[in-house]
Amino acid sequence: MSQKHEKLIDKKGLRLDGRKFDELRQIKIEVGILSNADGSAYIEQGKNKILAAVYGPREVHPKHLSLPDRMLLKCRYHMAPFSVQERKSPAPSRREIELSKVIREAVEPAIFLEYYPRTALDVFVEVLQADGSTRCASIVAASLALADAGIPMRDLIVACSAGKAEDTIVMDLMDTEDKQGSADVPVALMPNMNAITLLQMDGILSLEEFEQAVNLALEGCKKIYAMQKEALRAKYVDAKEVEE
Amino acid sequence: MSSIVVKVKQKQIAQLIAKGKRLDGRGLKDYREIKIEQGIIERAEGSARVLLGATEVLAGIKIETGEPFPDTPNEGVLTVNAELLPLASPTFEPGPPDENSIELARVVDRGVRESKAIDTEKLCIEPGKKVFVVFIDVYVLNHDGNLVDASTLAAVAALLNTKMSNYEYEDGEVKIKSGYMPLPVKKHPVAVTFAKINDSLVVDPWLEEEQVMDARLTITFDDDGNICAIQKGGSGFFQPSQVLEAAQIAKDKADEIRKQLKW
């Protein structure tokens, strides 16, 4: 939000990477790529490269944290020191602690926690390279890792951001748009219940612009949802072929 | 252990809300009584105590000199910290800030920062070298729900109360002179928090309601009716229509509460 270095949108209405306002970046998703984890997923979205792994249900440590009526869900969002331009200290920053909390609260409504009382479920997200909207991409990967681990869920959780670049509301912010744009609205959705499980905003938006941004983010969610299901199917269809 | 009590309470609270009533007698869109007292800590450059019903928050402002961030060499620095003091609630424990106090600080920070409440360019002493650093420390003294709104209000009230010493800048040294000037405060962000209980929205949840709510939504508005920060919290969800409804309500509520700030 400092001085503008370059125009975020050119005369033709195209963004720095040539996208239209309602276009997602290239997304590549893989499911089940870590052999030790109970479930895992990898996502590339633009230059974002993010790994998510799920361990559990397993024993709770320390024991006194265990819940008598449901599973304890834990989440850690962490960025690699080399994931950003200036080296980031590997110690968890305040931002990472907040994001760990909001990502946990974004996936929690989808999970049938009450099926596994007195156990713990760990969700680990590692951002290997960051390129804007990492919390959304992290949620997309985390929910696939949960599904891959066979955790009973109401739906997949999908997330997408929208924001304001110059005077236009745009979908799926990249790093420069996040830093130089004037607002960022990440949204996570459980599509089959039309339920928003994560909503944040920073920047300045009028009520009308905010409504536009939420709708654009939800549109993006629906597109990514199809890719998520495709990625999940790809893993298990392939597995079947190998067995045969 | 407490989950049975919570379930019983939730039923009672939800039944009342369905009739448009609340346990403490308020309407669904009513705030508790707000009291603001400014300048109660003389050693601080600015301070304010906010009572929101029985929720009590003290915000103190300290100002020091420091280096600007490399990407904003002409701007002063804003830092927000929040402490959930163990004396404020049986559930708060001493120790380093947990995720709740970090979230609280970051939501207050987002409101103040994104609304550009402080004219940070006026806090520059020498570009790229020396600027003023404004520390907002939020001290929660009694927790009876809705800490975000009380803390944002306390932070802004404290900023409005802040006096900086006059100074002279010579050979890279800041010399304090006699007299004071006010901190350049341009905007007055106000946070409005909702709790979702059994698919209904209530404004300014108190502790009993927070214990049974499915989810929470904070929307912060600036003086011009623009949204400057949003945070959803809690393990439930909102329908898209509820979010837009909340934003409409919050806009009016923010204007109403802003009238209680004096500047």
What's the topology here?
The complex is a heterodimer of chains A (244) and B (263).
Chain A: E1 27-31, E2 39-45, E3 48-58, E4 72-79, H1 94-107, E5 120-129, H2 134-148, E6 158-165, E7 168-171, H3 175-180, E8 183-190, E9 195-205, H4 207-243
Parallel strand pairs in A: 4-5
Antiparallel strand pairs in A: 1-2, 2-3, 3-5, 6-7, 6-8, 8-9
Helix pairs in contact in A: 1-2, 2-4
Chain B: H1 3-18, E1 34-38, E2 46-52, E3 55-66, E4 77-84, H2 99-114, E5 124-126, E6 130-142, H3 147-160, E7 163-170, E8 173-182, E9 190-197, E10 200-203, H4 207-212, E11 215-221, E12 227-233, H5 240-258
Parallel strand pairs in B: 4-6
Antiparallel strand pairs in B: 1-2, 2-3, 3-6, 5-6, 7-8, 9-10, 9-11, 11-12
Helix pairs in contact in B: 2-3
Describe the model:
The complex is a heterodimer of chains A (244) and B (263). Chain A has 244 residues and is α+β, with helices and mostly antiparallel strands. Chain A contains 4 helices and 9 strands, in the order ββββαβαββαββα. In chain A, the strands form 2 sheets. A 5-stranded mixed beta sheet of chain A has the order 1-2-3-5-4. In chain A, strands 7-6-8-9 form a 4-stranded antiparallel beta sheet. In chain A, strand 1 (27-31) and strand 2 form a beta hairpin. The relative contact order of chain A is 0.18. Chain B has helices at 3-18, 99-114, 147-160, 207-212, 240-258; strands spanning 34-38, 46-52, 55-66, 77-84, 124-126, 130-142, 163-170, 173-182, 190-197, 200-203, 215-221, 227-233. Chain B is an alpha+beta fold and 263 residues long. Classes of the chains: A alpha+beta (244), B alpha+beta (263). The A-B interface holds A 2, 68-69, 94-95, 97-98, 100-102, 105, 108-109, 185, 190, 193-207, 210-211, 214-215, 218 and B 1, 3, 71-72, 97, 99, 102-103, 105-106, 110, 113-115, 217, 222, 225-240, 243-244, 247-248, 251.
